[in-house]
Amino acid sequence: MENSENPDIISAKHTIDKEIEALRIMENNLNGNLTNALDVMQKTEGRVIITGMGKSGHVGSKIAATLASTGTPAFFIHPGEASHGDLGMITEKDCVVAISNSGETRELSDIIVYCKRYGIPLIGITKNPNSALGKAADIWLSLPDDGEACPLGLAPTSSTTATMVLGDILAIALLERKGFSKTDFKQRHPGGKLGACLQKVSDVMHKGDEIPLVQEDTPMKEALLTMSSKMLGCVGIINNKNELVGIITDGDLRRKMSPDLLNKTAKEIMTQNPKAISEDILIGEAINIMNNTGKGITQLFLLENKHPIGIIHMHDCLRIGVA
After folding, report:
1. CB contact at 8 A, 135 and 116
2. b/e for 208-231, b at 16 or more Cβ within 10 A?
3. I need a labelling partner for 51 at 20 to 30 A (CA). Which of 194, 214, 220, 243 fits?
């Protein structure tokens, strides 16, 4: 059956089109309320509290997690639990973002009353500004009122997608306002491959006596012994100012193999001006450099004012789960 006739493909494309349409409507409805909400969230001294019931709650949990991981302290409170003691988790230094597609979710009533009683800023995300949530909110963020992708018009689909995207809009805008960096991101994601990629090369580099280095005039016999003992597949060549001026790798030895190889000096065999990096480079960036330098290299020296202070090997990246 051709894809154009496949009912599953037709259904899938309808869902995609419907949800894209909802996002376009939301895009066209963006206004100054977004800036006002961002101002409140950025100035909040405490945490951004996200709340919502049902599917809005599931999306809210994700929004809270995204905010927290991108530099905005946040957590999710379930409306039902809030009514049974968790309201005490909300302080006057916090702000609350309440999510309800209809704006009439009765489980949110206690949180709304609590915010009003203690002067806690309330941002409402709903399609209906005249709903209970829309009227109570200090700032209203609009969801598209264009129905759901569900053919019954019942299952939250387009509305939850729009809510998720709105959460991403808030998180990214706050990230940009705060100048949140890759280093900041790494500190909040220390585990897994992502955390490994966001480590700096200085975290895994070989340093001190582990660095394979010889002078320019070192005989190749000695250079090979240094190269072999350090087991990094290379030796760096330094001048009398302790500046890195060259490198000899396994590949260099194969290319320049000759009967008189051992009678030559390191300077005669080395590749000049080897690729090098600084110690504050992320491991992910170092891997990109190694993979995209000519035919690819497996080692990088770390320099400070042209002086070698460390070396990283591709195997170091493999050991910590990167590459």
Report:
1. no
2. eeebbbbeeebebeebbebbeebe
3. 194
15 class by beta-carbon count within 10 Å (0-12 exposed, 13-18 middle, 19+ buried): middle
Measured CA to CA, the distance from residue 120 to residue 47 in angstroms comes to 11
Query: How deeply is 192 buried, as exposed, middle or buried, from its count of CB atoms within 10 A (0-12, 13-18, 19+)?
Result: exposed
Question: Angle, to 10 degrees, between the axis of helix 158-178 and the axis of helix 7-28?
Answer: 50
pLDDT value at residue 291: 84
Spatial separation of the C-alpha atoms in residues 281 and 66, rounded to whole Å: 25
Contact 317/286 with Cβ under 8 angstroms? yes
Using DSSP bridges, classify how beta strands 213-215 and 48-52 pair: parallel, antiparallel or unpaired.
unpaired
* Per-residue confidence (pLDDT) for residue 185, from 0 to 100: 67
Average pLDDT over residues 164-171: 96
Selection from 241, 249, 238, 225 nearest residue 300 by Cα: 249
Q: Are the CB atoms for 279 and 202 separated by under 8 Å?
A: yes
Residue scoring higher pLDDT (2 or 252): 252
- Contact between 200 and 225 (Cβ < 8 Å): no
SS3 260: coil
Rg value, the chain, Cα: 29
Q: Which amino acid is at 82?
A: A
pTM to 2 decimal places? 0.62
> For residue 257, is pLDDT > 90?
no
Q: Considering only CA atoms, which of 297, 317, 315 is closest in space to residue 248?
A: 297
Q: How far apart are CA 63 and CA 210, in angstroms?
A: 45
Structure tokens at 184: 């900041």
How many beta carbons lie within 10 A of that of residue 314, not counting itself? 19
Q: Is 36 helix (H, G, I), strand (E, B) or coil?
A: helix
Question: Which H or E run includes 287?
Answer: helix 283-291
Q: How many CA atoms lie within 13 A of 114 on its CB side?
A: 22
CA–CA dist 179, 84 (Å, integer) = 38
